[in-house]
Amino acid sequence: MATRLPGTVTPPAATAPETALPAARVRGLVKDFGERRVLHGIDLDIRRGEFVALLGRSGSGKSTLLRALAGLDGETAGELTVPGAVAVAFQEPRLVPWKRVLANLTLGLRQANPKEAARAALAEVGLSDRADAWPLTLSGGEAQRASLARALVREPDLLLLDEPFSALDALTRITIHNLVLELWARHRPGVLLVTHDVDEALLLADRALVLADGRIARELRIELPRPRRREHPEFLALRASLLAELGVTPEGTT
Ligand SMILES: Nc1ncnc2c1ncn2[C@@H]1O[C@H](COP(=O)(O)OP(=O)(O)OP(=O)(O)O)[C@@H](O)[C@H]1O
Ligand SMILES: [Mg+2]
User: What is the mean pLDDT of residues 142-153?
Assistant: First the structure.
C-alpha cells in the first residue's frame, strides 16, 4: 500500500452520483433492553454519499443505534428505513480464522463472480498479496483493511463502522483514514462512523452527532474543505465545541 504523508487526507473527486433515496431514515427510534430504555426516540437521516460521525460517552447507545441500523438487534420501536445494501465493520476485524482472507470476503457473497469481486476489493485496500493468508497471520492494520474490503465488496449503500480504527497505532490509523476517505469518495455510500476520537470525526465526517443518554444531544456540520488540517482555527474551534459537549474540559472530565 502506498505511503502518504501523515496528517493529510486527500480523497479523489467523487465519481458516482448521489441518489435521492436516503441511505437511512430513522424516526422516533426506541430501544429497550428489558426494563431499561437505551434509545429514547432517535431521529436521523443519512444521505447516500454523506459521511456522519457518531460520538458519545461509553454506554450512551452508539453501538445500539448502529446495530439497529444493521438489523442486528431484534425488536425496536419507531420507524427505521434502510432501503439499500448495508455492510458493517467493527472494532475487531471479526475475520473467520479457519478461512483464508479471500474466502472471508466471498463468504455469503451473492455476486455473479464473487472471487473476482473479492480480489478487486482486496486490491483497493492494498492487500492483493495477502489473499491466501490466514487471518491470524495478518497485522492489526492488515486485518482491519481486510475487514473494510469485506464490507466494500458488498457494495453497501450504507456503511456502518463501529470504532474500527480505535485499536490501531497512530501511524496506521492515519493511513487507514486516508484509505477510508478514498474508498468513500470512490463508492459514495452513506457512512455512519462510531468513534470516541473527536479528531477522527473532524478529519473524516461531513456531520458529527453527539449521543447522550440515548438522545441526539448535538449535531454539528463540518464544512471544512478536505484535506483537513488539525491546526486549522476552525478545526480547533469545532474540537473545543465537541469536547465540551462530551464533558471534556482542559481541566479533565466533568
Ligand atoms: N444486549 C444487551 N443487553 C442489555 N443491555 C445492553 C445490551 N447491549 C447494550 N446494552 C446496554 O445499553 C447501553 C448502551 O450500550 P452501547 O453498547 O450502545 O453503548 P456505546 O455508546 O456503544 O458504548 P461504548 O462507547 O462503550 O462502546 C449500555 O448501558 C449497555 O450496557
Ligand atoms: Mg459501542
Answer: 95
Which atom of ligand 1 is nearest to 65's Cα? 18
Q: Answer yes or no: is the C-beta of 58 below 6 A from any ligand 1 atom.
A: yes
> Model confidence over 30-82: pLDDT tens digits?
999 999 999 999 999 999 999 999 999 999 999 999 999 999 988 999 999 99
In this prediction the pTM is: 0.91
Ligand showing the shortest atom-to-Cα distance for residue 68:
1
Q: Which set of grid coordinates corresponds to residue 73?
A: 438487534
Q: Which of 60, 90, 210, 213 is the best mutation target for the ligand 1 pocket, counting ligand atoms within 8 Å of the beta carbon and taking the most? A: 60
Predicted confidence band at 11 (pLDDT cuts at 50, 70, 90)?
Answer: very low
59 lines ligand 1 (CB under 6 A): yes
Q: Which of 87, 105, 104 is nearest to 184 (CA)?
A: 87
Nearest to 23 by CA among 63, 77, 69: 69
Say if ligand 1 is within 6 A of residue 64 CB.
Answer: yes
Ramachandran angles phi, psi of 209, nearest 5°? -115, 140
Element (H, E) at 209: strand 207-212
Residue with cell 443505534: 65
Residue-wise burial string across 206-215, b where 16 or more C-beta atoms lie within 10 A, e elsewhere: bbbbbbbebe
